């Protein structure tokens, strides 16, 4: 009796959980150095808006047991583990426009956004 074995497929590397653009890193570094010194930014998702989910950002003094620690461009950002499946591969940016400025997210998992851009669904 002859046995054939199928060669294993190579394990594909997972994309990073989250990355920062230069603009996001610069803004976040400024926040960490000034008013939020000693704190860390935690990113998660909440049920909100007409599409179902929105990004949630808050400051914390230390990582929780349920946080994923993301290190990029010399900075540390926390991601709530409950949100990690929704955020894999997300790029965090900081944009300055004529009337607004703030952090934005380019999320490859998004399947759509509401008309105002406040919420998304996957």
Structure write-up:
The chain is mainly beta and 122 residues long. It has a single domain, classed as Sandwich (Hypothetical Protein Aq_1857, Chain: A), CATH 2.60.300. Helices cover 13% and strands 41% of the residues. It is built from two helices and nine strands, in the order βαββββαββββ. The strands form three sheets. It has a four-stranded mixed β-sheet with strand order 3-2-5-4. Strands 1-6-7 form a three-stranded mixed β-sheet. It has a two-stranded antiparallel ribbon with strand order 8-9. A hairpin with a 3-residue loop joins β2 (40-48) and β3. It is globular, with a radius of gyration of 18 Å. The termini are far apart.
List keywords for this structure.
single chain; 122 residues; mainly beta; Hypothetical Protein Aq_1857, Chain: A; four-stranded mixed β-sheet; three-stranded mixed β-sheet; globular
Number of strands: 9
Give the total of domains: 1
Strands of the biggest beta sheet: in what spatial order? 3-2-5-4
CATH superfamily: HesB-like domain
